Amino acid sequence: MMVHGLVVKMGFISEPSVLTALIGSYSVYGMGTCWSLFHQIRDKDVVLWSAVVSACVKNKDYLEALELFRRMQFIGLKVNHVSIVSILPACANLGALRLGREIHGFIIKRMFSRVISVQNSLVDMYAKCRNLESGIRVFDGMLEKDLVSWRTVIRGYIENEFGIEAINIFSKMQLLSFFAPDEFVVRDMIMAVLQSGENKLGSAFHCYIMKNGFLAFVSVATALLQMYAKFGMVCSARSVFDHIGNKDVIAWNAMISAYTQSKLPFNAVDAFTQMLHMNAKPNEFSLISLLQMCSLMASQEVSHELGDSIHAFIEKVGYSRNVYLSSALIDFYCRSGRVKQGKALFDEVPVKDLICWSSLINGYGLNGYGIEALETFSNMLDCGIKPNEIIFLSVLSTCSHCGLEYEGWNWFYSMKEKYNVTPKLAHYACMVDLLSRQGNIEQAVDFVKKMPMEPDKRIWGAILAGCRLTPGPIEIVKFVVEQLATLDPQNSTNYYTILSDLYASEGREEDVERTRRLVENA
């Protein structure tokens, strides 16, 4: 504001270069002042246009950015490489691959294809549009690469969940380039190691981090801590945490979350207490982790007492209007069987978002209040809130657990037809579970055979559980057990034992003996 006032006072407010700098500064606070500055000058040059395009992208107004880019060309402005670098992130974040390809053609036509910043933006765009192959072709065709080039292609592999390939590119960077990785590359590599699923690789990369001094970066240390937590190595996570010098709230949250993931609730409470003693101010994520941790406690009395204390703390520090915390509290009360308190808290939330509605719907379902859950879902729709795949999962799970078969089918078919939400494997699993619980085993098997994706072990497991509850044709049980043994060979003995017991209950001794031989050879 002070600089802006000085610019006006000195008469530079009509200078495009000055306005460009001001737009860049104000874009952090939204688009209001940016638009005022942009419309203030009559003769706008390409740099000013590019600045406001970049501001729109920064504020996630991607469609407006694309419209501005189109207008630039319409009025005859000669677009430069800065304009291209400004607009490609809009295509990337919208997943607009076709438009991105058109801009790529424009880049080649205008001879911008050798500009490193443009090439880096193209690699990023293709990676985010899930067309990594095209991005790699751009990367491989670059005559010169900078650190951003290597960082972008590594992140592209990670965004597309190719952790091993990202590790290979990192090794290639070490061998073939003059650029040393920075903390951003190292942090991305921790995610790549996590995607690889190799905890030994994680320990080796930890040594690399220590050797090269990256543990001094709190963001790197926190990412390493989170990696160990997800690998289930909570002692290693704590060791990393203890070596962090100036712990920020993100590091504390990561440690609390690590204990929660490892089902060590009292350790999580101790970490939170230490956090308060160190005068680190907890945020909503700290408190959400603690509320999730309450449901892990074996003692319901202790869980209730601690959850109530956290609720009181939330009220005390002024977070009671935070919708994420309200949703977490609703979830806590419902999971602890206190649905009335959860509903009362829900009613107090002034502006309810999708997560808030989902928490109550899921809470009703967990406690067997199927009708109330569906009524809440209908109320949500009446409020004009568009359902997503997660809330449909809560609805279908509720129908399954509460035996609401008709309602389950109704909402399952409505997903795609009425709300344009494509059912995923988890939604199909809910329907299989619903049919199996109702004893409709043959219908469940037919449903699975018609699924548009390959069933996993949880789907066949739901049918097997249904077979044990409702005796059905044993040949179906045999078929289901064979599917499970193929998908989950480590537990094949358990599956064949169930089949053997069913054969024994029907007096089929030859089949019992044959199945037992399979168990011995498994």
TrEMBL record:
One Pfam family linked to the record: PPR
Gene3D superfamilies from the UniProt entry: Tetratricopeptide repeat domain
Keywords in alphabetical order: Repeat
PANTHER family per record: OS07G0578800 PROTEIN-RELATED, OS12G0156900 PROTEIN
Intervals holding PPR repeats: 45-79, 248-282, 353-387
Name used for this protein in its record: Pentacotripeptide-repeat region of PRORP domain-containing protein
GO biological process, one term: RNA modification
Origin organism lineage: Eukaryota, Viridiplantae, Streptophyta, Embryophyta, Tracheophyta
Molecular function GO labels: RNA binding
